[in-house]
């Protein structure tokens, strides 16, 4: 038996003695970060943003202080949640860790390895703790699969599929339309990180990517990846952001002794969350065990990333999405671009730099 309805507020609620400040007041902060932190009882002091009106609106909604700048915020808290586009993250992280703050970085950690390495060095030199907001590891269905794998309930893993076929208006994030690294770096990086969390490092990745006729965005909006793990496991990530007809998002994990299938409800209601469906079948049984999983990804999973950071500060435990680990997710993401550019299977371990897409 498996119950995917984890209580993250109870799991991480003892770490409310740390004071959080948030840099950035975009949609994701309003719809996920702040509701999650309120549910968990975390102590959020205030926010700051380059858009003063936006910062004030979010602060009013959640009864928070508006800090005039990052420096003032960092002097007033001991944990900073950075929720800005990655091209601005390095400078912000260097500023807040220099003030002695622990930090939750936004994903992707950086657009290139130089900035990612510099962020890691700054954190290590400051002697603080950092993690990356790859919160799909706490998406309840994904965590339930992790637990089943840990128990050996699926046997030898053979097949994993993540299919996301939705319609996304990237103009909601205007800066995204200007980047030539789009779908993988800002969406499928979640799925790549989740597969690393479940199965470890793949031996190879084969990728193909495309745009859609007439799209406003520069970068790829349709991607397909096959990850190979030794002789047994094959994992597929198939994502399209141009489905105007019948959007859906679903997952399936199969092994020699069990299988899991279900849907990701977030995409039925985005930016609000909807329930996942989750079903588990033991090979020795003839009936699927079914669960509905409310608030599976947004906002509940955001308790996990921040909560694990707060736990790390309090206990010395290393957060699961620590920087060295997340650089491996960045390496895998860049391996998909290299595979696409060169039309071949790539070993992610060989990636030592950022690979430019060739549209």
TrEMBL record:
Residues 142-260 form the GFO/IDH/MocA-like oxidoreductase domain. SUPFAM superfamilies: Glyceraldehyde-3-phosphate dehydrogenase-like, C-terminal domain, NAD(P)-binding Rossmann-fold domains. Keywords: Oxidoreductase. It comes from the Archaea. The keyword Oxidoreductase applies. Residues 20-133 form the Gfo/Idh/MocA-like oxidoreductase N-terminal domain. Belongs to the Gfo/Idh/MocA family. PANTHER family: CONSERVED EXPRESSED OXIDOREDUCTASE (EUROFUNG), CONSERVED EXPRESSED OXIDOREDUCTASE (EUROFUNG)-RELATED. This is Gfo/Idh/MocA family oxidoreductase. The lineage of its organism: Archaea, Methanobacteriati, Methanobacteriota, Stenosarchaea group, Halobacteria.
């Amino acid at each position: 038996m498996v119950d995917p309805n984890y209580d993250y507020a109870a799991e991480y609620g003892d770490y409310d003695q740390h004071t959080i400040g948030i840099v950035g007041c975009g949609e994701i902060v309003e719809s996920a970060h702040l509701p999650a932190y309120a549910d968990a009882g975390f102590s959020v002091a205030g926010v700051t943003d380059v858009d003063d009106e936006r910062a004030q609106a979010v602060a009013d909604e959640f009864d928070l202080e508006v800090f005039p700048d990052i420096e003032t915020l960092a002097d007033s808290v001991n944990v900073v949640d950075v929720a800005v586009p990655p091209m601005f993250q390095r400078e912000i992280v260097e500023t807040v860790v220099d003030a002695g703050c622990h930090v939750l970085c936004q994903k992707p950690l950086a657009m290139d390895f130089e900035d990612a390495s510099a962020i890691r060095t700054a954190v290590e030199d400051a002697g603080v703790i950092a993690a990356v907001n790859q919160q799909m590891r706490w998406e309840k269905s994904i965590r339930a699969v992790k637990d089943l794998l840990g128990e050996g309930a699926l046997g030898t893993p053979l097949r994993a599929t993540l299919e996301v076929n939705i319609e996304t208006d990237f103009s909601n994030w205007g800066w995204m339309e200007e980047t030539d690294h789009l779908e993988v770096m800002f969406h499928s990086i979640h799925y790549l990180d989740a597969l690393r969390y479940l199965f470890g490092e793949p031996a190879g990745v084969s990728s193909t990517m495309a745009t859609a006729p007439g799209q406003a965005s520069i970068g790829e909006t349709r991607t397909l990846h096959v990850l190979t793990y030794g002789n047994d496991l094959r994992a597929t990530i198939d994502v399209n952001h141009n489905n105007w007809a019948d959007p859906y998002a679903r997952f399936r994990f199969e092994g020699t002794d069990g299988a899991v299938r279900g849907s990701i409800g977030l995409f039925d209601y985005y930016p609000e969350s909807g329930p996942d469906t989750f079903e588990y079948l033991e090979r020795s049984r003839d009936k699927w065990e079914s669960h509905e999983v409310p608030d599976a990804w947004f906002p509940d999973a955001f308790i996990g990333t921040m909560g694990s950071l707060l736990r790390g500060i309090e206990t010395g435990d290393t957060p699961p999405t620590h920087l060295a680990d997340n650089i491996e997710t960045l390496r895998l993401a860049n391996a998909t671009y290299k595979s696409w550019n060169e039309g071949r299977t790539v070993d992610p371990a060989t990636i030592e730099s950022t690979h430019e897409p060739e549209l």
